[in-house]
Amino acid sequence: GTIYPHPPQSNPSEAFQAVRHWIDRYAIEAIAIGNGTAGRETLDWLHQSLDPSWRERIYLVSESGASIYSASEVAREEFPDLDLTVRGAISIGRRLKDPLAELIKIDPKSIGVGQYQHDVNQKALKDKLDREVEYCVNQVGINLNTASRQLLTYVSGLGSVIAENIVQYRLDHGAFRDKATLLKVAKLGPKAYEQCAGFLRIRDAANPLDNTGVHPERYELVRRMASDQHTDLNGLLHDAGKLKSVALDRYATSEVGLPTLKDIIHELEKPGLDPRGEAAPPEFAAHIRSIDDLQPGMVLPGVVNNITQFGAFIDLGIKESGLVHLSQMADRYIKHPEEVVSLQQQVTVKILDIDHARKRISLTMKGI
To answer: Does the pLDDT of residue 139 top 90, yes or no?
Structure first.
């Protein structure tokens, strides 16, 4: 449904009742708000309307490229009967839940990152991006039973054709119960299986190792470890003491060295762990709603939303981002902003100057 908490239709009471109804009906755990038009106003409205316990569960999410996605072929395939605006809203919600899985559906040209994005060789940029995304996908691990075709494409050893076949197999036969069943997927042979199996996860699988990054070719080794500790696989995975007492030297061979064994133990310590951190709700000054509320000397919280060679742009919770010039980033000499900040990092800044005519805000991080 659509709500109107803001002018001109302004009906905040009815809007709140609708939100409260959705929270109760669907057991909502978090709320994602697009950071575009009226995003900050909606954040403030929800903070004021909902119980204080919700403050840590309401997030501002980047809208970059959401409108492009909503009109794309991928979106039409996923939601053929939905309006463009609804598709965009779904994409924003999914970005909060799993940004990696959602952002790979959008052409990087539509996201708008980096100072020279459109000046470099576009093919080289895409090739580099594909490699980086593949690295991230394989580092995080992919849920075999929920991953989209687009996400599966980036798993080592797969590609678009096999990814499509995996999705079709799920539709025809239901969820995968073990990794070995992958060999029944059309065009997924032993070589592709060898490459992809370690990066796929199956939650609640009969074999608990199927929800880890341990490769199936090492399952027998782990069973030996469990047996030597006088337990089974589940017992080994849920007993930190037994894992720590595994004498890795006993299992080292020319084929499986100590580094590999240590990686296996690390996976067993926290099976199915997503290495990504928790999303953090934005922290902005409640009394700052527009550039007109700013004054030189103010110290404010913000979030790094873009990094260039000459500095970093900071989201202050208003329409305009402020710039911290390279020379204002640290009390020491630095060559590049990334020595001090990273994207989406929470920072504290002081306002140096405001150019109201050109809507520019100069900031500093020195001496704070």
So the answer is: no
